[in-house]
Write a structure and sequence with these properties.
The structure holds two protein chains of two kinds.
Chain A (H helix, E strand, L loop, with lengths): L1 E6 L5 H25 L4 H10 L5 H26 L7 H18 L9 H27 L3 H21 L33 H19 L1 H11 L1 H6 L4 H28 L10 H11 L4 H25 L4 H22 E6 L11
Antiparallel strand pairs in A: 1-2
Helix pairs in contact in A: 1-2, 1-13, 2-12, 3-7, 3-8, 3-10, 3-11, 3-12, 4-5, 4-6, 4-10, 4-11, 5-6, 5-10, 7-8, 7-12, 11-12, 11-13, 12-13
Chain B lengths: L12 E10 L2 E11 L4 E5 L6 H8 L7 E6 L2 E3 L4 H7 L1 E4 L11 H8 L6 H14 L15 H13 L5 E5 L7 H16 L3 E6 L2 H7 L2 E6 L2 E6 L6 H9 L17 E10 L9 E9 L3 E5 L6 H9 L10 E3 L2 E2 L5 H6 L2 E4 L14 H9 L6 E2 L2 E2 L1 H15 L15 H13 L5 E5 L7 H16 L3 E5 L3 H7 L2 E6 L2 E2 L3 E2 L5 H8 L2 H7 L7
Parallel strand pairs in B: 3-8, 3-9, 6-7, 7-8, 13-20, 13-21, 16-19, 19-20
Antiparallel strand pairs in B: 1-2, 1-4, 4-5, 9-10, 11-12, 11-14, 14-15, 17-18, 21-22, 21-23
The chains are: A mainly alpha, B alpha/beta.
GO molecular function (chain A): transmembrane transporter activity
Protein name (chain A): Sugar ABC transporter permease
Keywords (chain A): Cell membrane, Membrane, Transmembrane, Transmembrane helix
């Protein structure tokens, strides 16, 4: 007997909807085994991960704060992935956006600049991220360089640039030699929504991005172009849509959203520029985009779910001494299962008896 | 049997009543064929006649639905190509399966069954290529090689298995005449060594020159087995395209007006190695006129379609003129705005995005000029109205108002695509294989629509391999062969024999280069 993958006659829409849930189920099962190996009670550990963070207002706000950059980046990435452009470097675009916006905060620091500073910072962040994302896009279009590699490699360039700036020219003179800029002025800070809480205006901007993303994809000719270039490239060319233009466009959009998420994170919850501003948001957003089926509403839900794993991971570290790296393992396993389960949309498993006729080798 | 060298002995390979069914479609219908050693056996037929299906069954790529195959007189069931190779059946495909970034020797090693050391393979490769006069440097990377050299790798790879029976699928399709001549010397030698060869082709002169026996397929059936040397190219052509069908007649007279589509000396290099080089193509098509382009697939029809539609741009704007405007440099969208419409051969993936709804597929070609887009926003109502109008006018049958394109049957999807374009009232319609794989009812609807469109003053260019179809609807017919377009013949005067000869390239070549086998 052999287990074979067999192509379905038609794609299964049921599986397309259920596949993320199967993936989550398989991930939880795998994690339970992992917890057991670590010597922790899986039931208790899963409770700390997934139930406890939902129980108090502080954690709920914290989930929204974490979900904000994840969702914003993932919306942009979903445009790329729908158009078959593989932007893996959102993490770098996030960092460059943070750097570009912080430049204005550093330059206006201590002056009496007005309320225009924050909007200008957000704009700079978006422009910085977009320009940075265009580097791999142009290399792809002009030279045929793999955008997967170039966009990923540029993450490390961005990381080191930020490191240099906060240790060198932008370091806070009164900062006791810590590698950080001065605390941003109030006009350069994203306002808090709930007094004494952590939820900030960025969450609202993200919701607007989700709505705008849904409108763009579903209601505009540009969204149609993005979808058709990815779904049927030859038909797209027949329709008069230029795939190179779309690569540039989707990279620019996703870079802008990642950059804006970066400056919102720095000007919001963090309050200054420093190394390590992202616990891998740009990479986790890839999981969010796929878990959300590259659909804006799905991405919102997936972003909240992934944020839950971040918060749950922190609580598990405090309460049960489970290493934070386990959270990253968790996210990696989740992406693995999401992509694996997607093959069930077009294929199904079947048991076949091995053929007795095969004389030597397999064709 | 007429052609058996020794009576009493079993042929090397024999198919008995071989039938292959795809759903209700009979790709091969009860085919009997005998392959004897020391013979080059031609398999002739138009595209879609069932040649590929037959050799796929013989090479173990597909299982026949009915009938059996006998190898040296014994029943043979193949579990796959490696099983076929183990018995001594080799095949050289029309499209090569080579890794560009690997060397010749590495490619050969990857394609061989069994375990041999790389050193042995390289040595044997050099030996085989020397013995047969197929020079190959085992250390060169494949991407550096010409198409002819790449084919040599495939042939040497097949020969290294020491096959008793070698199948070649249109081997000269990609070769220059000189390369083809070299290949024929190799094939003659293989024959002299006692091997059998099945040679798939539609080039009649080539078959007459090389082959000892020809089996002719038409519509999945074997129509004849003959000695090609005793036939003329014309009689072979007649057997390929069929004689029982009606003689060519002109469509009802229409008023022709000004030229609406003009092609001036269009030459285009192919952009992929299997493409066809378009050479000096000129044509003029008036409003109210339907011009047919006949020819065996792969002679440049796809390339011509791309050049006319703007999927490929020409250097010189004047090479394509749409309704008086030089358009060679314009994109497909700009050409649509000039009033041109296009229907490609492939319905799914080219003419439509298979997983998108019909309304979205209406938008695919309608976004340029049909009021479906307003300030960047798409108007679903206008898209759905196109779907509804096409459904009504062309009797498109579907399960719901706006299903995915892939869920429609071939005929209904084709009616939708043709309808989508005709509803835009184009000045010029370029349509490729309008009724390919479409049921008879839908085919009639589509042909009538093309006639009606021309009657309203549009210029219609139809590429088809179905001579009956061209006879029914066109005013003039031109033939494509090797990237060249013959001068159009008035449909009323063209005979099937003339067209068949043009399709086989013989008439064209006699004018250009006497005695050449292929141009």
């Amino acid at each position: 007997m052999q287990l074979v993958l067999e192509k379905r006659a038609e794609r299964s829409n049921t599986i397309a909807l259920v596949s993320p849930l199967i993936a989550i189920g398989l991930t939880i099962a795998t994690m339970s085994v992992l917890f057991a190996i670590l010597g922790k009670n899986p039931i208790v550990a899963l409770g700390v991960y997934f139930i406890d963070p939902l129980a108090d207002s502080y954690s709920l706000q914290e989930i929204a704060v974490k979900a904000t950059p994840l969702v914003m980046i993932a919306i942009g990435l979903s445009f790329c992935y729908l158009a078959n452009a593989w932007n893996i470097g959102a993490e770098g675009q996030f960092l460059i956006g943070a750097v570009a916006g912080s430049w204005l905060a550093v330059k206006t620091h201590g002056t009496d600049a007005g309320l225009w500073v924050l909007p200008a910072m957000l704009l700079l962040g978006a422009i910085g991220g977009a320009l940075y994302a265009l580097i791999p896009a142009i290399c792809k279009v002009r030279f045929g360089a793999s955008e997967i590699l170039t966009s990923l490699m540029l993450v490390y360039v961005a990381d080191l640039l930020l490191d240099y700036l906060v240790r060198g020219p932008w370091r806070d003179p009164k900062g006791f030699n810590f590698p950080t800029t001065a605390e941003f002025d109030p006009v350069a800070t994203v306002p808090i929504l709930i007094e004494g809480g952590r939820l900030h205006l960025g969450a609202v901007i993200t919701l607007l991005v989700v709505v705008a993303g849904a409108v763009l994809l579903g209601k505009t000719i540009m969204g149609f172009e993005i979808r058709v270039v990815g779904a049927a490239p030859r038909a797209a060319r027949f329709g008069g849509f230029n795939s190179n233009r779309l690569i540039l466009l989707t990279f620019a959009i996703s870079g802008a959203l990642a950059g804006m998420a970066g400056i919102i994170e720095v000007a919001g919850p963090i309050g200054h520029l420093q190394p390590g501003i992202s616990p891998g948001y740009g990479f986790t957003a890839i999981i969010v985009a796929f878990l959300g089926r590259l659909n804006p509403a799905g991405i919102l839900i997936a972003g909240l779910f992934l944020a839950l794993t971040f918060i749950g991971g922190e609580q598990a570290q405090i309460a049960m001494k489970i290493p934070l790296d386990v959270t990253k393992v968790f996210q990696g396993i989740l992406l693995f299962y999401v992509l694996a389960c997607d093959s069930l949309i077009l294929y199904r498993f079947r048991l076949v008896s091995s053929s007795p006729k095969v004389s030597r080798g397999v064709a | 049997m007429l052609f058996g060298p020794k009576s009493g002995a079993a042929p090397l390979l024999q198919t008995v009543g071989l039938t292959k069914r795809y759903g209700a479609f009979l790709a091969n219908d009860c085919i009997d064929i005998e392959i004897w050693p020391r013979q080059i056996h031609a398999l002739l037929g138009e595209n879609g006649a069932g040649k590929s299906t037959l050799v796929k069954a013989i090479y173990g790529l597909i299982q026949p639905s009915e009938g059996e195959m006998r190898w040296q007189g014994e029943k043979m069931v193949l579990s796959g190509p490696s099983d076929a190779r183990a018995r001594g059946i080799g095949m050289v495909f029309q499209h090569f399966s080579l890794f560009d970034n690997l060397t010749v020797a590495e490619n050969v090693a990857l394609g061989l069954d069994g375990q041999q050391s790389f050193k042995d393979i390289s040595a044997r490769l050099e030996e085989v290529s020397n013995v047969y006069g197929l020079p190959l440097d085992p250390r060169r990377d494949v991407w550096q090689l010409s198409v002819g050299e790449r084919q040599r790798i495939e042939i040497v790879r097949a020969l290294m298995q020491d096959p008793k029976f070698l199948i070649l699928d249109e081997p000269t399709a990609v070769l220059t005449p000189q390369e083809a001549d070299q290949l024929f010397i190799v094939l003659e030698r293989l024959k002299a060594e006692g091997r059998a060869i099945l040679y798939i082709s539609h080039k009649l002169e080539e078959v007459k020159r090389l082959c000892d026996i020809a089996t002719i397929l038409r519509g999945g059936k074997k129509v004849s087995a003959c000695n090609p040397r005793a036939e003329t190219a014309a009689s072979l052509a007649r057997m390929m395209v069929g004689t029982e069908i009606r003689e060519v007649k002109a469509a009802a007279g229409r008023q022709t007006t000004v030229p609406r589509l003009v092609v001036n000396d269009l030459s285009l290099e192919p952009d992929d190695p299997h493409g066809v080089h378009l050479k000096h193509i000129s044509l003029e098509l008036k409003g109210g006129e339907i011009l047919g382009i006949a020819g065996v697939a792969g002679n440049g029809q796809d390339e011509l379609f791309a050049a006319l539609s703007g999927e490929r741009l020409a250097q010189d704007p004047g090479t394509v003129v749409i309704d008086g405007t030089a358009a060679g440099h314009l994109s497909i969208t700009q050409r649509r705005r000039l009033g041109a419409a296009f229907v490609p051969e492939e319905r799914l993936g080219h003419g439509t995005a298979p997983r998108m709804k019909l309304s979205e597929n209406a938008l695919l070609t309608g976004h340029a000029a049909s009021g479906m887009v307003h300030r960047g926003f798409i108007k679903l109502a206008a898209m759905l109205s196109t779907v509804d109008r096409a459904t009504k006018a062309f009797d498109v049958r579907k399960a719901k108002r706006d299903p995915e394109a892939a869920s429609l049957s071939g005929g209904n999807l084709q009616k939708f695509i043709v309808g989508r374009e005709i509803l835009r009232n184009p000045a010029v319609l370029v349509v490729s294989q309008p009724t390919w794989g479409v049921d008879a009812g839908a085919a009639t609807v589509i042909r009538q629509a093309l006639l009606d469109l021309a009657a309203r003053g549009a210029a219609v260019l139809v590429t088809s391999q179905d001579l009956d179809e061209l006879a029914e609807i066109t005013d003039r017919i031109a033939v494509m062969f090797h990237g060249r377009l013959s001068a159009p013949l008035p449909t009323a005067q063209a005979t099937r024999e003339q067209l068949g000869l043009l399709m086989g390239g013989s008439a064209l070549e006699e004018k250009e280069a006497p005695h050449a086998v292929s141009a």
